[in-house]
Amino acid sequence: MEPCAEQCPLQLGRAERADRAQHAVSQEYQRGGLRAGELEGDARADAAAGRARELRQKGRLLPAAGVHGLGQRNPDRRHDHSGEDGAARHLHPQTISPKFSDWNFSYDFTASYKVAPGILFYATYAKTFKSGGINQNGVPTDAANNPILGAATVKPESVQHYEAGLKTEFWDRRAILNLSAYRTDIKDYQANVNNGQFGVLRGYLANAGAVRSQGIEADFSVRPSERFNAYVNGAYTDATYRKFVDAPCPPELSGGATSPANCDISGQRLPGVSKWSLSFGLEANAPVTFLEENGQVYFGYDGSYRSNFSSNPTPSIYTWVDGYSLSNFRAGFRTDSGFDIYGWVRNAFDQNYIDQLFVGPGNTGLIAGLPGDPRTWGVTLRKSF
């Protein structure tokens, strides 16, 4: 194979080139803050409506393939795949002209009732949406290497959210306790997936039939005096696919001659969501005078914990991230005039942890990880005016 002249474009590896033409029209109308009014006693109801939106998109994607080696050029065979191996055949040029048009309407309703001084009960319902659109990074192909047109567009999400809870203050307003329970139902949830094909290098958006996220949250903070305050927040979250029957399979079920075309992951957990999470901290201070400046010396601590979570849209035995906890400390001096100097250390105990795991494209077996920050320390100086 003769190398190409200098003016020929360089394409590295078996990559894709995509020429795109897209036109989008978006119209949005909004009206909010429509209060239904005061009810009897200490009850109140509020309603808001907004974002009646219409979106139209159309585009033409023409990914071109036929690259013959790392750093090599061969313009005479960019569209001739007769002699290429099986991997290259997955990179046949695609010419698709997807169109998308949709409109939606958002609104919410909140009712609250003051049960007693310092105790407020509330309930909320909200109907929202997330716009759909066009997949622009290429789409998967069928057994005949034809693009699957059903994956060229992604439907908008339809979201219904329910929440109820209590907001309380006590001990002369030195302590606050908030409790809430919620449920969010999402139809046509947009998941960023990678089906392992060579022609889908960056993943694409696919609609899961239905998703549900529900849980309980609690927030508590206390300030017994000006010299001390503390807080603790906790959450339990159950977030699962309620229906996703044609999801891309995890890497352990992909790539073989008998591998399924897709997998039913209904009932499995959503990526990036821990069942349990906690955050907690405190700060103590004492008055001092330093260089004729009145101020405070202070010490603070912030900690967090999260349980394990899946790091892939389709849960895989290779992409579960173990739970971990982190501790951060700070200590310094601040003045009443706005001067503040403090030293800090993050991840004080040098916990080894992973932020995210990634499945490599093309079903190469590569699992890449993004490690969390190691122990980090520093000094901050600031002045408020």
Report on this model:
This protein is mostly beta strands and about 375 residues long. It contains 1 helix and 19 strands. Residues about 1-20 and about 60-90 have low confidence and may be disordered.
Features:
385 residues, mainly beta, two-stranded antiparallel sheet, 19 strands, 1% helix, globular
Give the topology, please:
Elements: E1 17-38, E2 43-64, H1 86-89, E3 99-116, E4 119-130, E5 133-134, E6 153-154, E7 157-170, E8 175-193, E9 204-225, E10 228-243, E11 276-290, E12 293-306, E13 309-310, E14 320-321, E15 324-335, E16 339-346, E17 354-359, E18 367-371, E19 376-383
Antiparallel strand pairs: 1-2, 2-3, 3-4, 4-7, 5-6, 7-8, 8-9, 9-10, 10-11, 11-12, 12-15, 13-14, 15-16, 16-19, 17-18
Order of helices and strands: EEHEEEEEEEEEEEEEEEEE
Q: Could you name the ranges where pLDDT drops below 50 across 5 or more consecutive residues?
A: 1-18, 62-91
Instruction: Quickly give the structural class.
Output: mainly beta
Number of helices: 1
Radius of gyration (CA) equals 28 Å
Task: Summarize this structure briefly.
The chain is an all-beta fold.
